[in-house]
Each structure stands twice: as C-alpha cells, then as structure tokens.
Amino acid sequence: MQGKTPLTIKEILAAVDPAAGHSMVWFPNDVAIRAVTVREYLRQLPLHPSLTEMVHPTRPRGTADEVVAVIGIPAMAAFAAIGMSSSPKAISRLGDDAVLHAFLSVSEITFTTRDVDAFFGAEQKKAAARTSKRKPSEKSDEVPQDSGLLTLVRDAAEYTARSGRDGFDLSPAALIFARRTYGEVDRDQRISMARAFAAVMGDKNSAESLGDI
To answer: What does the alpha-carbon distance between residue 128 and residue 138 come to, in Å, rounded to a whole number?
Structure first.
C-alpha cells in the first residue's frame, strides 16, 4: 500500500454497510446520514439530470462554487435528502451552505473517492480519469456511450446476474467492493477447479498443491 492513501474506517464501513448511520457533527442535533443506493440515485436523474455529473463529469468541480454551479442547489438538496432520510425542502431551509455540506457528506460515503486496489493488495495500473469532451445536452435524455452512468448500471446488473444479490440495492461504493470481492472468489474457485481437473488427469504438481482429493 506504499505510495497510496489508505482507505479510512468511514469508507470501509460505508462499503460494508451502506445503511449504517454516519454522524455529521457540524449539523444541529448530530444528524446521521447513510449512503445512497444505486437505485435511489438513478431514480433522481429524470428529475435532476445534473446529478449525472457525479459519475460522468463534463465540467470542473474542484471548488465549492464549481460544485454548486455544475450540480445546482435543488439537485444537491434532493440527493442529500435521501441520505439524511429527510426532504429537499427541509434541507433547503437550512441555507445553501448546509445543503452543500450535506451533499458532500452523503456523496463521500456513497461514491468511492479512492482507488480500492490497495485494499485488496492488487497492483493494477488504471487509466487516468478522463473528462469527457462531449457534454450532453441539458434538454436531452441522451447518454454518451462512454458515460460513467452506463458503467454504473452495467456493473450493478452484472453483479446481480452473477451473484443473485440485487446490485442496485447497494451504494456505488459498496458495489465496487462487492464486485471486486466476488470476482476474486470466483477466480479462486475456477483455479481450484482447474487444478482439481488437472490432478485427476494425472498432473502431479496440481495434485500436490491440492493435497488428497
């Protein structure tokens, strides 16, 4: 894990238990939040298309002002309300700064912001994140083929089909961990099956690695 920022306890907990309550101490009465599931996120997109920027950025979001300009206060309040089990109106009444903090807090535990390869101990080179050159029309429902939104949907659907567990009921962060873990388990099972077959066919090295079967 050298050279990489380690995952925090909050990030691991959010991935393992998406419904866990996380404290936001700066809010009055110590409000608790939870991660938003893939299904809940997708249901917000027809009402707030700007939320697609969270998985497929087309404009810079390096500062708080840029986040507000790109996502918009109404969309941010709607997203944050899900994680706070509240309503967009109730959150909006607290002011724009509160909406921004709530949005960022819920986003932090919903989407993985760090490379999880270090968590699994695998050293894999990933392509640098690219900002799409194509910005979808705000008046169109068209989704670019390279959209991170399509990737999210495909990942959730694939995990559902392979594992039998509804991937859309997981948060995006939890889905990443679940797919990665399931993939490693599936790979190990395939290797064991291949070695067992080879051992039965007379391969001594495979037989020794498996032991008595």
So the answer is: 26
Of 14-23, 184-193, 197-206, give the lowest mean pLDDT range: 14-23
Q: How many CB atoms lie within 10 A of CB 165?
A: 12
Residues contacting residue 51 through CB under 8 Å, at least 6 positions apart: 41, 44, 45, 71, 75, 78, 79
State both tokens at 201. 């066919």
Sequence-separated contacts (24+) of 13-22 with Cβ below 8 Å: 14/109, 14/110, 14/171, 14/173, 14/174, 15/112, 15/171, 15/173, 15/174, 15/176, 15/177, 16/174, 16/177, 18/170, 18/171, 18/173, 18/174, 22/105, 22/109
Give residue 63's pLDDT: 86
Instruction: Identify the band that residue 109 occupies on the pLDDT scale cut at 50, 70 and 90.
Output: confident
Helix ranges restricted to H, the chain: 9-16, 38-44, 64-71, 73-84, 88-92, 96-110, 117-120, 148-163, 172-200, 204-210
The token pair at 158 is 């694939």
The reported pTM is 0.67
- Sign of the torsion formed by the C-alpha atoms of 44, 91, 139 and 66: negative
Tens digit of pLDDT for each residue in 124-150? 444 334 444 444 444 456 666 667 888
Q: Could you count the other beta carbons within 10 Å of the beta carbon of residue 57?
A: 15
CA 190 – CA 39 distance, rounded (Å): 31
